[in-house]
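Supplementary Note 3. Input sequence used for the single-chain structure prediction.
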Amino acid sequence: LADEFPMLKIQGIVADFIYQLNLIPKTEKILFCFFGSTIGNLNTTGIKEFMKLLGEEMQEGDSFLLGIDMIKDSAVLEKA
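The predicted structure, written as C-alpha cells, is reproduced below.
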C-alpha cells in the first residue's frame, strides 16, 4: 500500500485494538482502518465498548473505515 501511494503516511500499531487506542499519535488527520471480520468476534457489548472508545479517541477531521465480511460456510473458510 505504501509503495502504491507514497503520499500516504502509514503507521501500523500493535496493541489491543479495544483498550489501547490511546497509543495512536494525534498529530494529523487519521483514517482509522479496521479490516477483516474481527468485529464479528465481539459480542454486542464489546462492539459498543469499542465504538464508544474509538469515538472518544477520534478528533474532528478523522475518518473510520470498517471492513466487514459475510457469513461464510466453514468449507469456504477452511479452503482459504
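The beta strands are 31-34, 63-66. The chain has two helices and two strands.
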